[in-house]
Amino acid sequence: MNRRVTSNDVAQAAGVSRATVSYVLNGRAGQSISTATQDRVLAAARSLGYTPSTAARTLRRGRSDLVLMLLPPEPLGRALAIMIDAASEEVERQGLRLVAHRLPAQGGAPSLVQSLAPAALILLTPLPEPELAALAASGIKVASLHQALEDPLAPDLGIGACQVQHLAAAGHRRIGVAVPPESGYAWRVDVRLAAIADACSRLRLPQPDVARLGLDAGEAAAVVDRWRAGPQPVTAACAFDDEHAFALLAGLAAHGLSAPEDLAVIGAEDIPLASLAVPPLTTVRMDARELGERFARMAVAPLGGAQDPQGSGASHSGQLAEPDLPPVRLVRRASA
Q1: In a shared domain, residues 128 and 178
Q2: 18 vs 13 pLDDT, higher one
Q3: How far is Cα 241 from Cα 329, in angstroms, rounded to an integer?
Q4: CA distance linking residue 161 with residue 328, whole number of Å
Q5: Distance between CA atoms of residues 242 and 66, nearest Å
Q6: For the chain: N or C, fewer Cβ within 10 A?
Q7: What is the mean pLDDT of residues 192-196?
Q8: Which residues pair with 329 in a beta bridge?
Q9: With the C-alpha atoms ordered 153, 156, 158, 163, is the resulting torsion angle positive or negative?
Q10: 19: how many CB neighbours lie within 10 A of its CB?
């Protein structure tokens, strides 16, 4: 069995010291190594098939080449998948690797960080204060949209406000909200409901009528029936995402009703099927790719990797500034 090629083998082949090999292969700045010597070391490493030891490098640096992205305990939707892909591409451009991990509801972020020793951490899910304190004590660089923001509604990215503003501009005053019942969505549901309630207050509308709704036509039909009953019926609904908007459209159809005549419906995300709904779905689009790229830049910039471009929204504290959040955009179709 062939033994592993070491940096000492590269040093002997190139006729240099192991320290020189380390400086060249690890890209350390501030060393006066000639271009010819660097080329000789790199050529020797290629010819020998040398690959650096990840474990040794992690021990030496105190961190690995990984950027850890912690995901909420919810199904992987399209927007989240796009964010992961975009962040992964951006991180890899800096010579690092992204690892995405769905954090269970019971938490455990500090122990996971300790075992992986990541170079940086991207939080797409909120953490309890004790875990945040433990991460801060570890000195790890954290990019987060959910903590240390002046505006607690910022994590909603303006989606709920955009939905309410559009419905109010169309003359609707009594608004319903359809959100998933699963506990895994709790943090995003809470932020969305707070954002919608805030928008209603600002526009002097009654507080919204909230329905916890699964992706089931029968459940949706019952919600539609309840909303339309009473002296002040709901005339328009904000759906948590486009899938829940589809459920509401199915609930309307079960009663022989349609949008927007009987209930205006607006979704969120603008998935590819939104334009194929009956009627085509009015929704709010968020640039998930841009958000993923910004998270990655926030995470790696403090490591001396990516430089934060002007206007990317990264602050010195490693947080994303609210005014520079990727904008959401209303996609006006026929359902609302």
Answers
A1: no
A2: 13
A3: 14
A4: 10
A5: 33
A6: N
A7: 96
A8: 285
A9: negative
A10: 12
| Distance of alpha carbon 17 from alpha carbon 8, whole angstroms | 8
Answer yes or no: are the C-beta atoms of 116 and 63 closer than 8 Å: no
**Shared-domain flag, residues 39 and 85:** no
pTM: 0.75
The angle subtended at Cα 53 by Cα 48 and Cα 56, nearest 5°, is 140
User: Is residue 142 located within the same domain as residue 216?
Assistant: no
Give mean pLDDT, residues 225-240: 95
Q: Is the pLDDT of residue 203 over 90?
A: yes
Residue 3: CB atoms within 10 A of its CB come to: 6
Domain span including residue 208: 154-286
| H/E stretch holding 66 | strand 66-71
Question: Over the stretch 103-139, which tens digit does the pLDDT of each residue have?
Answer: 887 788 998 888 888 989 999 888 888 888 888 888 8
User: For the chain, what percent of residues have pLDDT higher than 90?
Assistant: 49
Residue bearing the bigger pLDDT, 148 or 273? 273
Q: Is 266 helix (H, G, I), strand (E, B) or coil?
A: strand
Residue 68, CB-side half-sphere exposure with 13 Å CA sphere: 24
CA distances, 147 to each of 31, 92, 105, 330 (Å): 39, 26, 17, 27
How many domains does the structure of the chain reveal?
3
Confidence of residue 302 (pLDDT cuts 50, 70, 90): low
Whether 160 and 272 share a structural domain: yes
CA atoms within 13 A on the CB side of 161: 15
What is the model's pLDDT at position 266?
Answer: 98
The 10 Å Cβ neighbour count of residue 265 is 31
Mean pLDDT of the chain: 85
Q: How far apart are CA 109 and CA 102, in angstroms?
A: 10
> What band does 63 get if pLDDT is binned at 50, 70 and 90?
low
Give the Cα separation of 263 and 148 in Å (integer): 38
- Looking at the structure, tell me whether residues 96 and 242 fall in a common domain: no
